Structures are given as structure tokens and as C-alpha cells.
């Protein structure tokens, strides 16, 4: 019997202890937790930078992000970042998933050659972030039909992205002369922004006053209030800001969240206006 026990002990020493079946699973779980922590840290850092650079009510949100980083970053993203933008996939992913559609639209534009086909191609290029190619497509559409409103609007959006206010003004002016209600005021709003970018402040105020009588874009009302404030008309600025807040408070929750940035900016300016 002692010989058998000794033999078993020597065999165990020779072959080592039995492997732990939970070792790999624990290591994998630890790795996943590490990756998750790194991803959340990246999200937190992104939200913090966004808050510092763009958030009007940055005092409260910075406090939340620092005191309660989890789930503060998630709360800030859901409440402040995502609602104010039409969230899209990254540019490279949109280009990859729509590559067949882009090839088909390009072929249709080359084969048929009408302005409509070039506009469709340009819109798809713009949606996938290919701004240079989109500008070329709209240019070819306008070469076919100089009065094509869709092509003019697309060219204006490309110029707006490229920070070319003179080109934005020219294209939007042609659209508004043909159809003042085109795109339900979006063209008028972009046109007004181009006037501000060109420092034509008096004309911009006049335009936004007309615009806000017809459309109640929160951005347009806020920009009009800014012009009134800069012109020394604090009473008019206050009235426009109060109207903006009233519109936002009476709008559906989804709309109020989407344009929450302008609501916050309006509140901030109201506090800064002289009594």
C-alpha cells in the first residue's frame, strides 16, 4: 500500500496540478472588462470635450461628468448630444454600404445625362461625405439646367460645408427668387446665415425678421435676437428670446430635445441682457 500511494504522489508531481477550467474564462472576462472600460473612457472624454466646446449649460453637465463619470457620459449623450443631430453612421461606413448605389447612380448620370440624374448622384455623394465629388455632380447638373432648384440647393449645402458664404448666398438667392417656400424655410435659413458670415448685418436682420414671420426655426429666432442685441435693441432681443422659449416649451418632447441647444442659448442670453 505505501508503494502505491508513493507512486500516485510521484505521478501527480510529474504531470503537475490539473488545469483550472475557470482560468481562461476569468482571463477573458477580465480582458472584456478592460476593453469596455477603455471604450467608456473614450466616450466620457468625447462627451467632456463636446460639453466644454459646445454646451451652453456647461456648468451642470461638467459637474455631472466629473462627479459621476458613470453613467454621466451616457446621460449627457442621450439628453444633449444625440437629440440635437440626425445621427448617422460614420462616413466610411456609409460609403461602404452604399457603394453599389453610388456606382448605379454614377452610371445613370453618365448614360442618361439629364440634370435629374446628376442631382440624385450628387445627393448620394453628399450624404456619404464625398463633398468634392458632390460639388462636381451638382455643377454638371447646373450645366444641363441652370435653373434646377435641387441642384442649386445641393450646391448651396456643399458650399455651406466648405465655408464659402458668397457661393451659398448666390445659390440660395436663386432658389428663393424662384420659390420662396422651397424646403419649408431651410433655404431661407441658410441664406440668412450666409449674410451673417459676409458681415452684412443690417440685411441679415431684415431677412431674419421676414423669415421668422413665416417660419419659426429656433436657430433663426436666436440669430435674430443676437442681431437685435448687437444693434443695442435689448427689448426686441428679449422679446424674440421669450418667444423662442415659449415655442420650445409648447413643442413636442422630441422637437424640444432636438433643438435644446438653442433653448439653452436663449436662456443664457436672457440672463446677460440689460434690464
From TrEMBL:
It comes from the Bacteria. The chain crosses the membrane at residues 22-48, 60-79. The keyword Membrane applies. Gene3D superfamilies: Tetratricopeptide repeat domain. It is found in: Cell membrane. TPR repeats lie at residues 115-148. Keywords: Cell membrane, Membrane, TPR repeat, Transmembrane, Transmembrane helix. SMART domains: TPR (SM00028). It is a multi-pass membrane protein. Residues 42-80 form the Cardiolipin synthase N-terminal domain. This is Tetratricopeptide repeat protein. It comes from Schlesneria paludicola.
Amino acid at each position: 500500500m505505501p508503494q502505491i500511494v508513493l507512486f500516485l504522489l510521484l505521478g501527480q508531481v510529474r504531470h503537475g496540478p490539473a488545469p483550472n477550467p475557470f482560468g481562461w474564462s476569468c482571463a477573458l472576462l477580465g480582458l472584456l472588462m478592460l476593453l469596455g472600460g477603455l471604450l467608456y473612457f473614450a466616450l466620457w472624454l468625447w462627451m467632456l470635450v463636446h460639453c466644454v466646446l459646445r454646451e451652453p449649460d456647461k456648468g451642470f453637465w461638467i459637474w455631472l461628468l466629473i462627479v459621476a463619470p458613470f453613467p454621466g457620459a451616457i446621460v449627457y449623450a442621450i439628453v444633449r448630444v444625440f437629440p440635437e443631430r440626425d445621427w448617422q453612421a460614420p462616413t466610411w461606413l456609409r460609403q461602404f454600404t452604399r457603394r453599389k448605389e453610388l456606382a448605379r447612380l454614377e452610371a445613370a448620370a453618365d448614360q442618361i445625362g439629364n440634370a435629374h440624374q446628376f442631382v440624385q448622384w450628387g445627393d448620394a455623394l453628399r450624404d456619404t461625405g464625398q463633398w468634392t465629388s458632390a460639388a462636381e455632380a451638382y455643377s454638371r447638373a447646373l450645366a444641363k439646367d441652370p435653373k434646377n432648384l435641387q441642384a442649386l440647393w445641393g450646391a448651396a449645402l456643399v458650399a455651406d460645408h466648405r465655408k464659402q458664404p458668397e457661393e451659398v448666398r448666390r445659390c440660395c438667392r436663386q432658389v428663393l427668387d424662384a420659390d420662396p417656400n422651397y424646403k419649408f424655410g431651410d433655404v431661407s435659413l441658410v441664406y440668412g446665415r450666409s449674410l451673417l458670415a459676409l458681415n452684412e448685418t443690417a440685411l441679415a436682420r431684415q431677412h431674419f425678421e421676414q423669415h421668422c414671420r413665416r417660419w419659426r426655426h429656433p436657430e433663426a429666432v436666436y440669430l435674430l435676437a443676437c442681431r437685435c442685441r448687437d444693434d443695442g435693441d435689448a427689448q426686441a432681443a428679449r422679446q424674440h428670446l421669450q418667444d423662442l422659449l415659449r415655442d420650445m416649451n409648447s413643442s413636442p418632447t422630441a422637437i424640444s430635445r432636438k433643438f435644446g441647444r438653442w433653448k439653452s442659448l436663449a436662456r443664457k442670453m436672457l440672463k446677460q441682457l440689460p434690464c
